[in-house]
Design a protein that fits this description.
By secondary structure, the chain is α+β, with helices and mostly antiparallel strands. It is built from eleven helices and 22 strands. The strands form eight sheets. Strands 1, 2, 3, 4, 7, 10, 11 and 14 form an eight-stranded antiparallel β-sheet that branches. Helix 4 packs antiparallel against helix 5 and helix 6 runs antiparallel to helix 9.
């Protein structure tokens, strides 16, 4: 799913657009016991509750694609009878009215979600009448020929509210506040099937994780039957390791700077394209070639890539490139540069020693004190 498709679904969670047919839930305590279950026609709920559920659902579609929001594809085995995708299809097609299927789903989540504490499993069913669009992108609400029927699940921690004093308006007094069990924003969730090309894609699901580094692979494996990609942090670490292993001990500053500049340029050129920019093995190799990596350094690159990332793994550029700053770091000095002004920092040999040379303009501060850039550093520091 792309950002526009995610936003289109999020816009449904408002009173005038809502088409949710049913909501179900199961409250689980810290001992993995089912404390209570409920199922309701969504629009029959009190208005105040509807708005609170909207918040939870919108949060399940929030964050960055490729970090918090992950497109997952089902392996073929998952789509066979008894597979995870086949089960989710039956759950969706039941419109959440089959108590046996619901109970089985709750049991699967409870048995495969590792969490210490109480939580709420929420499920909704929706049938969205997808409006048509003109060639210039205008929405035509009366020209729909597609219904996107889906379920969404979100798993939310339930914790006691904080202790404190509260004001009693009737008595005009302050008293110890009664602590309530509060449903918090979801930790994980998923949309099934995916909303790709503004329609149902039963071969994929859209997964949400609040913390990209704690994506609950046990849940994804057992409930969705899919494989998580490398996390954003792992993609960045893998990319750095690829560069370091390819360049070896004699990595040159100018080459690494060129890699950064080329990545920044790629992101800038891609900013109008909705799909996330990803680089596969051959594209990473071409990036290194363009950045000045010597041909002999790339002789074993494909084997290095397969070992570090996996033969078919693609790396999202937004996850591996830092476009906000350009940092040069030594054990004693850290230099941060505007990523659009990396040309200000060069390397040079002075008195037989390799040095970083920083071009200074008329505005220079040392510990917040403005100084004349014409003075040498030795003069400034005394």
């Amino acid at each position: 799913m792309i950002k526009q498709e995610v936003n289109e679904i999020k816009r449904l969670y408002t009173p005038n657009r809502c088409s949710i047919t049913r909501i179900c839930g199961c409250y689980v305590d810290g001992e993995k016991n089912k404390k209570t279950e409920f199922k309701e026609a969504f629009l029959s709920l009190p208005e105040e509750e509807i708005f609170k559920y909207f918040e939870l659902l919108r949060k399940t579609l929030s964050g960055s694609i490729g970090k918090n929001l992950l497109d997952l594809e089902f392996p073929l085995a998952a789509e066979e009878a008894g597979g995870t995708q086949e089960f989710l299809l039956r759950l969706r097609d039941s419109k959440l009215k089959d108590d046996t299927l619901l109970s089985e789903f709750y049991d699967k989540v409870i048995g495969n979600y590792e969490y210490v504490g109480n939580y709420l499993i929420l499920l909704i069913h929706d049938a969205y009448d997808v409006p048509g669009k003109t060639t210039d992108g205008l929405t035509m609400d009366d020209a729909s020929d597609t219904v996107y029927e889906y379920i969404m699940c979100c798993v939310c921690p339930v914790n006691l509210s904080k202790p404190g004093l509260s004001y009693n308006a009737e008595a005009n007094e302050f008293h110890n506040r009664i602590r309530d069990w509060i449903v918090e924003m979801p930790q994980i969730g998923f949309l099934f099937p995916s909303f790709n090309d503004r329609g149902s894609d039963i071969h994929g699901t859209f997964y949400y994780t609040k913390n990209p580094e704690e994506a609950h692979p046990e849940f994804v494996d057992s409930i969705l039957g899919a494989v998580l990609p490398l996390s954003a942090a792992n993609q960045k670490e893998t990319f750095h390791s690829l560069i370091e292993e390819t360049l070896g001990d004699d990595a040159e500053y100018e080459v690494v700077k060129s890699i950064h500049e080329n990545l920044t340029e790629m992101i800038d050129e891609h900013k109008e394209i909705p799909e996330p920019l990803a680089l596969d093995k051959q594209q990473v190799k071409r990036l290194l070639e363009k950045s000045g990596v010597a041909e002999e350094k790339l002789e074993d690159f494909e084997q290095i890539y397969d070992a570090a990332a996996g033969e078919k793994t693609a790396l999202l550029v937004d996850n591996v490139a830092n476009t906000r700053t350009f940092e040069v770091k030594t054990p004693d000095v850290v230099v941060k540069v505007n990523p659009e002004r990396t040309s200000l920092v060069t390397t040079r040999t002075l008195d037989g020693k390799p040095c970083l040379v920083i071009e200074l303009d008329q505005s220079v501060e040392v510990n917040g004190i403005a100084v004349r850039s014409g003075k040498s550093l030795q003069e400034i520091l005394g």
